[in-house]
Each structure stands twice: as C-alpha cells, then as structure tokens.
C-alpha cells in the first residue's frame, strides 16, 4: 500500500508513468451490468451563513430563530419546526454515523448545534479575473465486468446492453478486478464507428473505481499508506477503549470552533461559554479519561486561545494582509496567497459518493476567497481572486500538513464537489496550535494514488462484503451459501492485507492486540481442522525479534481450539453483517419506487407544511418537554413531518390497491428505525436520523440536518437547469447498517485478548464446569435476612431455583417454562442479589421482556410501600422502544449531570442495569451457530447447572399440552386443578336460542345456522383449536404479498370478526384478548381493520384497555385469557416460510393463552413442513381441528361492521420490533454447523426454546 501511495510526496511534479503491456494476472471471462452517466452541473449553489463581523449586528441575512429548551438549542425552521426528538437517546450508540460501509472515521462528537443554512443570497465575495466557467463534472459509467484480459470487457446501461472496453494502464493495470465485479469508469468513453466504445484509464487521465458500492472513508484511506491492515481491523473490531486525552481535547475543540463558525461569535466570553457547554456534553469522555472538569477546562482554554486570532485574521469578506494561506509544498518563487472566509456553508456534513466509492464527514464547508499574489517578477502584478466552497478541516495536533491530513483533505475536495455541484480545486487545513491555515490543492497524481489505494483496500473488503456478481451470476442457492461462507473467512482467500511487521509502527499501533489475535486465529490448526490458514505468525526469519515477542505476549495464552472458536464466531458475525451491507447499497443502486416495494423505503415524500393549530400544538409540546424532568437532557434537533406527494403514483405491485401502496404502515419501517433522507438523484443521504412517529399517512423524523427547500431547489437546478421551482420530492430509506457488528466483534475479542476476560473464556469457550458452593436449602431462604421477604410467595421449584442461583460461583441456569413464574423468580432474585450488595445486568432479546420485569419490580415496590424501588435502575436503549412506564429509569429522564462525579453516580451507581441484547437475522448465520444462545450452549455442556421451573399457573391443561408434547417432554405441570380446568366463559354468551344478532346473520344464510363458526369458537368447551381455512374453498384464503411482505386478507378478516364478536358482542374485556402473528404485515393489516372500526365511531378507548395485536417477539412476557393466532401462509406450493418454522416464536405465541387458544391457518400448506406435521398429528389426534364452513368469512361481516363500540387499537402500538427477515435459503452442509446435544437432546422439535423462555 505504501508503494501505491509513493507518488504522494512528489506529486506536485506530474510524473505520468508509461503505459505498460503485460499479460493479465486475471484469466477467465464473465459478463453483465448496469450503468449510468454522472450528472453534469454548472455554477455554484448558495447555502450560507455570513461569518463576517456583520454577523452580530447586521440584518442583511436571516438569523434563525432560537429557543432555549433545557440545555439545548432549538431552531425553528421554515416548513420544519423542531420537535421533541430525543436525539441523545435515539443516538445511543450512534457514533456509528461515522460507521461507514466498513471503514469508519475516528469518532467525532455529534454536532450539538447545526449551522443554520440561509436561503440563497448573494455572497459578499469579490470577484476578479475571469468569470468562473460552468462546472461540468467528470462523467462516470457504472459497468459490470464481463471478462478480464488485456482489457476489461464490460457492459453498462439499462439492461446491460452496452458493450464497452476499459484499458487499464500504468499502475491501474494491477487492479484486482475480476469477472462479475462492478467498476465505475470515471471519464468519457471514446466512440468510433468500427469498435466498441472504449476508455483508457492511465496515470494522466480518468479513474477506475473498483467495487464502488463500498464507500471507504477518507480518514481510513488516508491512514492506509502506513499500514493498510490497520484501518480494516479497526473497522471490524470497534474498540470502545481507544480514548486518549489528545483525542478528547481535539474532539472538544472541534465542537467549540464549529459552534463559533455556526453562531458567528468569537468573543472570549462566548468561547468560554461554549467550552463549558462542550465540557458538560462531554462528561462521559472525561469520565473515561478519569479527568476532572477543572483539568479539562484548563486544557481546552489553553487550546482555544488561537480561535480569536483566527477570527481576526480570516473571517472577513476580503483577504486581509496577514491572512496568509500557507502552502507547505510551495517553492520560494511561487506566488503567495491570502485567504478570507466570509461565510459558512455547513458543519459536520456527511457526504457519500457512490461515484468515487468514498464517504466522509467534513468538519466544515466554508466559502473561501483566495487572493493569489503573483511572484514579484510577473507582470501585471494584479492578484487573481477565486472563491467557492472549500472543505475546512480542523487539526489540533502539531505536525503541519502531514501526508494523512493532505490525503484526507484532498479526498474531501472530491466529495464537496459532488455535494455542491461545483469545482472544488482545493481544501483547507487549519492548525489550531500554530494558527496556520494550509491550502491543499487537489492534484491528479495524489488523487490517482489514493484511488489506486482505495481499490486495493476495497479488493480486500469485498471478500467480506460479498462480490456484486449477483447482478449476473445465476448461482443456485446452495452454491451461494457455500460461497458466502468461503468468501468471508472459511475459504482460501484472506480478507486482510498482510501485516507490515515494522518494529516501530507496530509497537505504536493502537490495534496491535486485534492484529495479533486475527493472526493467531486465522493460522490456528488442530488435527481435525481442514480450514485453510489465511495468516501466518511472525517468526524469527520473517519479522523483527521484538515483534515475535509481542506476538507471544499477546497470544501465548491461547489454544488452537480457542483461536478457531474466535474464527468461527467472528465469521458468523460477518455473515450477519453482510446482509446489512447489501441493504445499504440499495440506497443508490435501487430506485426509490423499487425499494419501496421491498418495504425499506418511503418514495415520493414531501415535507408537510404545518397548520397554525399544529404549530401551536408543537410549541406546547416542546415547552412541556423542556420544563418537565423527563425533558431535561434531551437534545432537540430538526424535526419534519413528511407525507406522500399527491403526484406520487405507485407502480402496480402484486395487485395491491393504490391506497394500500400509499399506506406508510405497509413496509419494514417503524418508529425508532434509523433512516436517511435523500433527493434522488441529486443529494444522497444528506440527512440522517430516526423515525419518531408513523401513521398510515405521515412519518415524522428527527434528523441531523435542516431540510432547506430553497437550497435544495438551487442544488437541483445545477443538475437540471430545466428545474426552476416546484415540489421537492424526497425518499426516506431505512438505514440498515446502522450499528454494524464492530461492537459485537469487540465483545467477542475481549474474551481472547491477553488482558481479556479469562474467566469467561474458560466458561464460555472452553466450557469449564461451573462451580457451586454448598447450596442453601430452599426452606432456609425464608429465614435468611436478605431473602426472607422476597421468597415467601414462591413455590418449591421457584425456591429451588433461587437457591441454585445463590450458590453459583460461576453461573446457574434457570429453565423457566411458560407460565411457571420466571418473571416472579427473576424479580425476587434481583431484589435478593441487590440486598447482598451485588450488581445485576438484566437482559433479553426484546425490550418488552426486559420491561416486563422492571414493571413487576415497580408494581411490587408500590404495593408494599408506595415509594417505588429502593434501589437504582439504569435502563439503556432506544427511548422509543422502551415502555413508557420504565422510561423514568433511562438517562434522559435523569437530571443532567453537571460534574464528572454526578455522571459517574448516574452511570455506575445503579446496581441494576437493564438492556436488550443482540438478536440475529441472517438465516445462515443463525444455522451456523448464532442462533444457539448462551443458555443453550452452557446447558448442553453442563445439564447439572440447570434448574427447572415446572409448575405453571397460566395455561389450562389443553393449551399446556401443546407445548408439553411438542417441546417440553411432559415436564410442565399445572400448578393447581383450577388452572388445569380453566375455561373462558363469556359474560354475554352466544346462542341459547334467543334472537341474538347471530340469529339475524343465520337467517340470511340458513346453512350456517347449525355450524356457526363464531359460536363454536366462543364455546367454553373450545379451549385449543386449529381453524382450517382450506375448507372455505380453493384459493379463497390464500396469502398475498405487499412488496416482499406476506399477508392473508381473508384470515385477517376472520380474526377481526372473532375479536369483534368476543369483545363487542359477548363482553370479553379488551385487555383479555390478544392477537399474534409471526408476520409483521399481518399484524399491521389486522390493526388497520380494527382501526377502521374505530374511525367509524365503533371504538371508544377505555382507560388501560386495548386489544393488543403483536408479533410473537413483542408478545413475550404477556398473557391473555384468549389468544388468536394468525398463521398467514396459505398457497398451492406448500410454501411455509422460515418464520412459521421458527418454533421459538411459535411456542411463545401459543403459550400466551390462559383459557382459549385459537389458531387460524391453512392445514394443507402448513402440514407440508415436517416440523408442523407433528403439530397437526397432535391437533387431529385430539379432535382440535375445526374446518370452517364455506362462506364463513362473509356471513357475519355485515352485522359486525354495523355496530360495536369496544374494539380499538392504539396507533402507538403500530410499532413492531424484531422482525425476522424473510427470504431464507435451505440449509447447506458446511463445516461450521453442529448438531444439538446435551440437556435438550432427543426432543424432536426443540431447537433452542430454552433461550426464549429463560
Ligand atoms: S500491528 Fe503492525 S501490521 Fe498490525 S495493524 Fe498495526 S501496524 Fe499494521
């Protein structure tokens, strides 16, 4: 890599390399593609804040209105007022804004204040010399490589019809391009009548971007010259402890200066205020550094001294005599230059460029006026003045314009040029410690070197991300899966550049631990391993002795088995991550309309202007939030409501009606999801944020950038001069890569580091037997002071569980089957452990499970004293997904800390921390091992460590029989005869011969009188039943699709009619009935049918009561007298789908019911799956299958639609979490799958039910 960038230092003398002609290193051939030409734009777009001294006094520009709320600044926007977006909470873990496709920039503070962007106005810059020419960006063509030989044969254009040729010359020749790869050819193709259009990529002209969908950050790329391995490793494993004082002071000073730029204030007093605010917001970093706020203040003030000098010198309309713009590469004979910065365009702008395969977050983009003074000898000696937007990077270190800084700034010139649609010939580097601004002109040679280096890095990364060949490769699914595994780490090709083994560099490398761990893991071998060694350890013959010693020090404690364990699990995480990367690419490779069909985008959206009433309501809401304790600490940024454009015409999709397609609830997007906002094709992901509210017709976003319609229109005119005014149409995409797997890998790696968690390495990886001290007999618990009051209501098996846990020195496993009182036991355990002075991490896969336990703790405390919990709880996670009752335990609900000590008390003080843990979606990763929970792994290895909760008090014996026979091998018992015989008796029971509404229905269709399906299902004797929809007639109740989501309209209708009858006619309380489906789209459909009832006046909310319609995941922790399950899948092909095969979720669904369980579905379809066949064997054997009579779904519809007052669904409940992605492939035989064993061995269906119920 260093070699690739050698040209950087000497790049001011263009030194084109001669064209080479060598045999190609890449044989074979291939085909296909998709292409588009890059846009062209003249002129400059204005989106400015005037920075000059007029700023504080002049009214020549528009100052944004501000309100102060809590500790944050609120900006009121045209067309987009600020709302109560809790961005702190929403941004939990969101340092990943910088987590790009794979390589992140170093963390920067999230901008607490955004610059306001002023609508187009004349800039105050002087213009001299020639008028700026219309800007025409380099065109680019997206191609798929057909064959690699002396030239690349590629195809591009719609349907990949255009055959073209790319010649790679000079250092481009060695690019690792292969058939099937996607490349961007940047530059014009030459057209001749006799040959295919062609382009030469040489040292002097044009660029080749390999795998352009991998967006490398400019920061990572600028770090690559020293060691290309380092940025890749630090993106794979995101360490949370690589924090240093220099980094913290640098980040804080950045923020102070950004505030100065955006607020146009530079007085000492004001700067000191900013320092205080930044310190308060950065208390977490100070805590991590163990530094007091006093020390930090001193450090920051020292470093901020230069800011006023900077302002005096550079913030001006015209360059001042002392405003030197340095050029560290200039010769003494070169002209001198002066700089003025009259205006700010934007701060912390995140720019993605699929054209160059780059992205970056620019500290600031400023309007720069540069006056070039010609050398004394030249004539005439009139200065030439140029102006325009320039990336402005703030550097707090001492070294001036080092290679890395130059490379980063130069790459930003490419990005800024794309964002602003204008030429950006250079960038600016400001060094705070030397009050120097350095100009970094963009140079062809340097850019070429950097792009060649980018391509080399992308060549490694693609092995993990997945080659793009899916455009044209018709692999079968098995082959595809095997390929997936091979490509990401089990195959023969390494995905990491080789180590540099440089004594000096490696000694100082911040990622040395990770580097050595990967080296060990990917070279480990046991007698049974057949995996190829992708790495090699350093030895005396190939590395300095000190490095060999370091390697021993870092990995000497590991065994080959442990190394292979890391390799396997690290690989599985990459599989999971691969899906996310693929989804991210869709933002620019798939049009909004097509992505909407996949449910991952809202297309055709416009900003909704607010009415006066709404504005008042927003204001009240904001004031309330700002003054309430819950509002403190919230960060308010920009908030907008978007609706569909009236002009948006959905394309026809699968027969869905237009109103269905306009319905914003018909997709994968939900409240709390991270999103990006784009204007296709002009501005890609120019704002990022979260969904804060979602209804069928509107989506409300909290985002990090202002949506300035005038500025956007001006920018659109650059690409399309015909666009003068009119509607700005946005696309809102789900940002799936948010978060990535870097943290998970770091957690995994922590077990294996030399100074890592040895105890858990032994217990989890080596499966060392857990130790127990002599256990306390359950009867003694009642007299122990710490436990007596908490166990008195527990039954024997619950007390045994508590006793086992208290005697565990390592771990104990409590297998809590459904309804056996897990929540009660966990709640008791938490209280006992806290009373013993211990700390507790409470975690589950779902928010609802975590919150159910916290609510129980709360309820019990209130019952006793009314004073709430006697100990502290810290609830971490996305506020939108946390139950309102327990939001009081989140950080945002606490008083904002003003000192490091206060923050430490808030973070470290509570003995109970509650959070969700990761759930896995990729089916291959799940089958490869990620679906095996820790509970399962440990219980398989050490059945002695498991204690069962056997007596359940929820389900009657028929409902219990389902789980017992299919899953729990009859170990589950009813806690009492009363529970066993429980039946659902409806207050206004149906039938009985009187003239009920049912009779009215039956008079219209006499044939159904004797076999009324509603009356049958409502009977107390019907306790567990499968309702077969096949008997309605061929295809009547078939499933259908909305995009790639599955629903079943007839089944939804039946479910809703049953619920309406139970609640509206027969008096069942709304809280006593629940509807569950594994399919999110079905949940939404059922909810919308119930909502339709509400909108016609049928449903009146009763306090605390609602009919809950839930996914299986969300139903965890709930129980209902009656549960109605909608299985959805019904088709002629026996397509059951992976969701229905997921017995963990099925079991959760079935075991929510106390007295009645009604399961709707197609027997014929579901029975085609072997696992479900066993379920039907049981149901049929017991006579629990009910065949619906023909016409059942319509016979009562009229009566049920006419009245009803009691059915309603909270709109808030529309948020559904933890959906499992569909589109699953069959299992492949591979080297990483393992069979189940141990305590659960021999049970035919159980895969990992323990984990969901533990
Ligand atoms: S330890 Fe050396 S080889 Fe490994 S990443 Fe760091 S600098 Fe590169």
UniProtKB/TrEMBL annotation:
InterPro entries hit by this protein: Coronavir_polyprotein_1ab (IPR050534), DNA2/NAM7-like_C (IPR041679), DNA2/NAM7_AAA_11 (IPR041677), DNA_replication_fac_Dna2_N (IPR014808), P-loop_NTPase (IPR027417), PDDEXK-like_dom_sf (IPR011604), SF1_C_Upf1 (IPR047187)
| Domain of life assignment | Eukaryota
User: Which of the seven top EC classes does this enzyme belong to?
Assistant: hydrolase
Enumerate the SUPFAM superfamilies for this protein. P-loop containing nucleoside triphosphate hydrolases (SSF52540)
Q: List residues of the DNA replication factor Dna2 N-terminal domain.
A: 161-368
Instruction: Name the catalysed reactions.
Output: ATP + H2O = ADP + phosphate + H(+)
Q: What is this protein called?
A: DNA replication ATP-dependent helicase/nuclease DNA2
């Amino acid at each position: 890599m260093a070699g690739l960038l050698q040209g950087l230092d000497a790049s001011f003398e263009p030194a084109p390399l001669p064209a080479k002609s060598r045999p190609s290193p890449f044989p074979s051939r291939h085909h296909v593609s998709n292409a588009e030409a890059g846009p062209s734009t003249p002129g400059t777009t204005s989106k400015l804040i005037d920075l000059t001294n007029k700023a504080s006094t002049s009214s020549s520009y528009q100052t944004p209105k501000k309100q102060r709320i809590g500790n944050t600044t609120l900006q009121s926007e045209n067309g987009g007022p600020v709302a109560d977006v809790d961005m702190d909470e929403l941004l939990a873990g969101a340092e990943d804004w910088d987590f790009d496709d794979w390589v992140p920039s170093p963390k920067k503070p999230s901008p607490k204040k955004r610059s306001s962007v002023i609508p187009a106005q004349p800039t105050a810059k002087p213009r001299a010399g020639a008028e700026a020419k219309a800007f025409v960006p380099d065109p680019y063509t997206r191609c798929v490589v057909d064959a690699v030989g002396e030239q690349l044969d590629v195809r591009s254009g719609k349907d990949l019809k255009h055959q073209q040729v790319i010649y790679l010359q000079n250092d481009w020749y060695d690019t690792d391009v292969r058939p099937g790869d996607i490349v961007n050819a940047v530059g014009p193709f030459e057209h001749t009548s006799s040959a295919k259009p062609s382009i030469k990529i040489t040292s002097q002209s044009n660029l080749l971007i390999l795998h352009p969908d991998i967006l490398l950050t400019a920061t990572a790329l600028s770090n690559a010259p020293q060691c290309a391995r380092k940025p890749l490793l630090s993106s794979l494993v995101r360490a949370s402890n690589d924090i240093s004082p220099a980094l913290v002071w640098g980040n804080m000073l950045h923020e102070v200066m950004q505030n100065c730029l955006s607020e146009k204030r530079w007085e000492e007093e004001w700067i000191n205020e900013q320092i205080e605010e930044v310190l308060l917001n950065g208390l977490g970093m100070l805590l991590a550094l163990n530094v007091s706020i006093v020390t930090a203040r001193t450090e920051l003030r020292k470093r901020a001294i230069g800011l006023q000098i900077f302002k005096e010198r550079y913030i001006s309309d015209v360059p001042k005599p002392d405003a030197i713009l340095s050029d560290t590469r200039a010769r003494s004979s070169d002209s001198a230059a002066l700089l003025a910065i009259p205006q700010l365009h934007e701060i912390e702008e995140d720019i993605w460029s699929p054209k160059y395969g780059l992205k970056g977050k620019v500290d600031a983009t400023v309007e720069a006026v540069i006056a070039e003074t010609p050398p004394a000898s030249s004539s005439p000696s009139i200065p030439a003045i140029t102006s325009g937007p320039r990336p402005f990077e703030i550097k707090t270190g001492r070294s001036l314009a080092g290679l890395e800084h130059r490379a980063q700034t130069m790459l930003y010139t490419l990005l800024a040029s794309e964002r602003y649609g204008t030429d950006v010939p250079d960038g600016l580097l400001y060094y705070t410690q030397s009050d120097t601004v350095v100009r970094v002109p963009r140079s062809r040679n340097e850019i070429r070197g950097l792009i060649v280096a980018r391509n080399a890095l992308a060549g490694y990364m693609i092995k993990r991300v997945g080659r793009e060949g899916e455009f044209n490769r018709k692999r079968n699914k098995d082959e595809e899966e095997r390929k997936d595994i091979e490509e990401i780490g089990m195959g023969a090709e390494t995905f990491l550049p080789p180590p540099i083994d440089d004594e000096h560099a490696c000694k100082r490398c911040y990622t040395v631990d990770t580097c050595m761990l990967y080296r060990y893991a990917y070279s480990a071998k046991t007698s049974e391993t057949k995996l190829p060694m992708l790495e090699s350890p350093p030895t005396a013959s190939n590395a300095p002795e000190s490095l060999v010693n370091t390697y021993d020090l870092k990995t000497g404690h590991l065994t080959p088995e442990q190394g292979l364990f890391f390799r396997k699990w690290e690989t599985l995480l990459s599989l999971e991550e691969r899906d996310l990367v693929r989804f991210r690419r869709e933002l620019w490779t798939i049009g909004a309309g097509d992505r909407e069909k996949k449910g991952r985008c809202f297309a055709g959206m416009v900003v909704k202007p607010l009415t006066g009433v709404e504005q008042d309501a927003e204001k009240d809401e904001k004031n309330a939030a700002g003054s309430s304790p819950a509002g403190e600490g919230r960060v308010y940024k920009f908030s907008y409501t978007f609706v569909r454009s009236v002009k948006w015409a959905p394309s026809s999709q699968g027969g869905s009606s237009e109103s269905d397609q306009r319905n914003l609830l018909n997709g994968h997007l939900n409240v709390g999801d991270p999103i990006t906002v784009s204007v296709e094709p002009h501005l890609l992901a120019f704002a990022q944020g979260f969904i804060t509210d979602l209804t069928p017709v509107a989506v409300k976003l909290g985002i990090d950038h202002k949506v300035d319609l005038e500025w956007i229109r001006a920018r659109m005119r650059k690409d399309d001069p015909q666009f003068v005014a009119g509607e700005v149409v946005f696309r809102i995409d789900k940002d799936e890569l948010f978060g990535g797997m870097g943290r998970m890998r770091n957690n995994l790696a922590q077990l294996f580091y030399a100074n890592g968690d040895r105890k858990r390495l032994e217990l989890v990886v080596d499966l060392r037997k857990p130790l127990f001290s002599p256990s306390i007999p359950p009867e003694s618990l009642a007299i122990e002071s710490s436990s007596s009051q908490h166990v008195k209501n527990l039954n024997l098996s619950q007390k045994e569980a508590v006793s086992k846990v208290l005697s565990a020195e390592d771990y104990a496993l409590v297998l809590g089957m459904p309804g056996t009182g897990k929540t009660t036991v966990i709640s008791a355990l938490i209280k006992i452990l806290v009373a013993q002075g211990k700390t507790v991490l409470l975690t589950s896969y779902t928010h609802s499970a975590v919150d159910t336990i916290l609510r129980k703790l709360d309820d019990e405390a209130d019952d006793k004293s009314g004073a709430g919990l006697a100990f502290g709880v810290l609830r971490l996670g996305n506020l939108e997904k946390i139950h309102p009752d327990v939001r009081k335990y989140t950080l945002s609900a606490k008083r904002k800390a003003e000192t490091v000590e206060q923050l430490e008390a808030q973070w470290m003080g509570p003995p109970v921390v509650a959070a969700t843990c990761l759930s896995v979606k990729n089916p291959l990763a799940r089958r490869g091992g990620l679906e095996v929970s820790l509970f399962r792994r440990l219980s398989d290895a050490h059945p002695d460590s498991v204690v069962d909760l056997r007596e359940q008090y929820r389900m009657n014996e028929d409902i219990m029989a389902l789980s017992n026979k299919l899953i729990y091998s009859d170990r589950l018992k009813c806690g009492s005869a009363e529970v066993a015989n429980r039946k659902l008796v409806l207050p206004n029971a149906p039938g009985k011969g009187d003239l009920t509404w049912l009779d009215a229905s039956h008079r219209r269709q006499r044939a159904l009188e004797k076999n009324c399906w509603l009356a049958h299902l409502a009977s107390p004797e019907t306790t567990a039943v499968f309702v077969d929809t096949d008997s309605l007639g061929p295809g009547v109740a078939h499933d259908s699709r909305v995009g790639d989501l599955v629903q079943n309209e007839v089944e939804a209708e039946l479910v809703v009619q049953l619920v309406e009858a139970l609640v509206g006619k027969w008096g069942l309380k709304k809280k006593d009935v629940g509807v569950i489906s594994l399919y999110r789209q079905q949940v939404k459909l059922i909810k919308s049918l119930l909502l339709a009832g509400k909108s016609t006046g049928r449903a009146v909310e009763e306090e605390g009561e609602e009919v809950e319609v839930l996914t299986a995941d969300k139903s965890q922790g709930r129980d209902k007298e009656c549960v109605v399950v909608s299985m959805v899948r019904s088709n002629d092909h026996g397509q059951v789908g992976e969701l229905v095969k997921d017995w963990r979720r099925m079991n959760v669904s079935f075991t929510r019911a106390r007295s009645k369980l009604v399961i709707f579905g197609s027997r014929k379809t579901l029975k085609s799956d072997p696992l479900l066949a066993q379920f039907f064997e049981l149901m049929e054997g017991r006579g629990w299958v009910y065949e619906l009579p023909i016409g059942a779904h319509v016979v009562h519809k009229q009566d049920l639609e006419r009245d009803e007052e009691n059915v309603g669904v909270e709109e808030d409940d529309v948020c559904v979490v933890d959906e499992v992605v569909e589109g699953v492939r069959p299992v492949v035989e591979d080297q990483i799958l393992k069979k189940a064993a141990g305590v659960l061995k021999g049970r035919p269906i159980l895969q990992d039910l323990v984990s969901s119920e533990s």
